[in-house]
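Q&A FORM
Asked by: J.P.
Topic: structure of Protein kinase domain-containing protein

PROVIDED:
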Amino acid sequence: MSTTTINTVAGKVKALMSGSPVKRHVIIGVIAWIALNLVVFFVLQGKMESADKTFLNKGVDLTLGMADKSGSPILSSDILALNVAIREVMENSNVQFAAISDHQGKILAHSNPARINRQMAPLDEERPMETINGVDISSGVVNGETAIVLFKSDVTYAGIKIGTVAIGWKGQGRLAAVRSVRINMIFFLVISGLVATGVLFLVERNIKARKIKMEKAMQGMTRIGPYLLTRKIAQGGMAELFLADYLRGDGFRKTVAVKKVLPHLADNRDFIDMFIREARLAALLQHPNIVQIADFGKIQNAYFIAMEYVDGKNLAEIMGELKRGLPVDMAIFLILKISNGLHYSHSRKDDKTGKPLNIIHRDISPQNILISMNGEVKLSDFGISKATSEPSLTQAGVIKGKLSYLSPEQAMGKEANHQVDIYALGLVFYEILSGSRLYRFSNDIEAIRTIPQMTIPAIITRRPDIPQGLNDIVMRCLEKSTSKRYQTANELHQDLLKLKNHLGMTYDASDLALFMRNNFEKPEPDPVA
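REPLIED BY: S.T.
REPLY: Here is the structure written out as tokens.
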């Protein structure tokens, strides 16, 4: 059975085990049934191996005994003594034949006198089995039908081969035992497999019916606990985002954003474990440049995260509308804010132990940089973030993060640290200055082949009006070598701050708010006359 098949079956069983107690009992029963058959398999296999070992050891001992008795008679051509050795072996009723030959293969003594003076010949359809204590063991047939296990050993004198002894042991009993065990094994495995498959099919069909019913209920859901879902904002492959009102019993009301796991993933235990763990991680972050998590959990079979609602646009939407690079002072202001938030998340410490959590975002992109109508800049979606101090729940082989914003070390499958966020932020910086994305890949194979080797042209060649100092900062973010790249987001933040002051830039949140209102604020409808 292949590794892929085993993993698939294990995944199916794990998914089924996560359900109701009745379902778990059924699965446990099926597993116990299969386990019983496996026990039978190993018992039969053990008996067969034990009998086989006894059989082979007896044949080896008999062969070595005959070899010991044949040395001197072969040297002295004492045919009588050789025949005595043959006769002693043939007293065993399971021996088909015995033979002794000289060093040239000429038979000196044989249980069938007609074979004397002929050459020692191999069995028909002879196949090597193994060698035990210098005795070569093989299987084959004689006379076209009799199954034989052949034991052969060299006869030596003073380290020199002077002859060979061979004993042909009847193999029908052994082969019949092997066939019987194999038939029993196949019978038990086939029956248990069919029964288990049938039970699993019935259980899974029932689960699917219940899941479809639950998904329909969740799709029509307009409320999750105290959160009234008012409008769907977006939907991805794993979750959907809603504008919602948080309603409290005393009349308090607040607009929030609610991210709800898609119904078909609600039963995926691995995904839910990761979702909850990473929501808990994101909730630790309290910073003005990071979207705040207000609540998370499970209500009415719906897993969700409630977070602050940022009334504005994400950077990807802004770039899509403008279709050109941003003004230099605005770009510097945005990256200053995000690098400040990143430095906070990278340096966040555990409240109890005081040890750094080393939280890595791992999905820095224009889509996850939000700009409010009031000029706030916030980093969102720590949904695939990771604290290096915690165990990873990511499935093996999965590249996390958007392909166009992967660092070289991520593309090569190396261990990621906080510098992957700096590289991704450098790509965003490059994009908002140049007006176009640097990387575009259709699949992960193309990305991992291209990114480590790709030469990035200096941003100043794409945007000649930017200062040389800004070019140096952007390109240092994009160094393939982590030793040459900014070591911390704070280093990047401080260099940008120095450059901003050096250039005498005064751009602030009020300027950003004005930009947002001028470009994206919806005009008030004309009053009705």
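FOLLOW-UP: The two ends are 78 Å apart (CA to CA).
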